[in-house]
Amino acid sequence: MISKKMEEALNKQINAEFYSSYLYLSMAADFEAKNLEGFANWMKVQAQEEWGHGMRIYNYVNEQQGRVKLDGIETPQTEWDSALAMFEAAYKHEQHVTSLIHELMSLANKEKDYATEIFLQWFVTEQVEEEAHAASIVEKLKRIKESPHGLMMLDHALGQRKED
């Protein structure tokens, strides 16, 4: 069983994960509007992954006899100036999510909620991967600059991403 304070914090994280999914879908839509289907695919897979993260927390709260309370999802940005600007925003967003996960870990530790601390360890590890993937694509986009050929090669490569 989790405390009310932890329950509230986890409910906020569910909302943050669902917002992440919504943000990545918005990015996918912008890439599709720009005819960059590979980039759009990468973002759609990411959106599914984020939705899964939210559901993982949703299920955990229920397993711990807590009460899931869903909140409204903030409207995400809908357009970006370039693929680089979009992935820089994605990377910055992942850094923000990492800080939220760290806050949850701190709260679990403070409350001596060892079950939640162990549960959250998966998210700590996942955020290392999330940040690394976004940062890697940012660096590739910086290297290719405005090269149409480079952009199309990266678009093709990102189109290969599949759901886990």
Summary, kept brief:
With 164 residues, this protein is mainly alpha-helical.
Task: Characterise the protein shown here.
The protein is an all-alpha fold and 164 residues long. The two termini are 30 Å apart. The protein has helices at residues 4-33, 37-63, 83-110, 114-144, 148-158. The radius of gyration is 17 Å and the shape is elongated. The chain has one domain (4-158): Up-down Bundle (Ferritin). The chain has 5 helices and no strands. Belongs to the ferritin family. Prokaryotic subfamily. It holds the Pfam family Ferritin. This is Ferritin. GO terms for molecular function: ferric iron binding; ferrous iron binding; ferroxidase activity; identical protein binding.
Residue runs with pLDDT of under 50 for 5 or more positions: none
CATH class: Mainly Alpha
Instruction: Please tally the β strands and state the result.
Output: 0
Helical residue percent?
Answer: over 70%
Radius of gyration: 17 Å
User: Any idea what the shape is?
Assistant: elongated
Determine the number of helices (DSSP H or I, runs of at least 4 residues). Answer: 5
Architecture, CATH level 2?
Answer: Up-down Bundle
In CATH, the homologous superfamily goes by the name: Ferritin, core subunit, four-helix bundle
CATH fold description: Ferritin
Q: Which oligomeric state applies?
A: single chain
What does the largest sheet look like? Answer: none
InterPro entries: Ferritin, Ferritin-like, Ferritin-like_diiron, Ferritin-like_SF, Ferritin_DPS_dom, Ferritin_prok
Catalytic activity: 4 Fe(2+) + O2 + 6 H2O = 4 iron(III) oxide-hydroxide + 12 H(+)
Keywords: Cytoplasm, Iron, Iron storage, Metal-binding, Oxidoreductase
Function: Iron-storage protein.
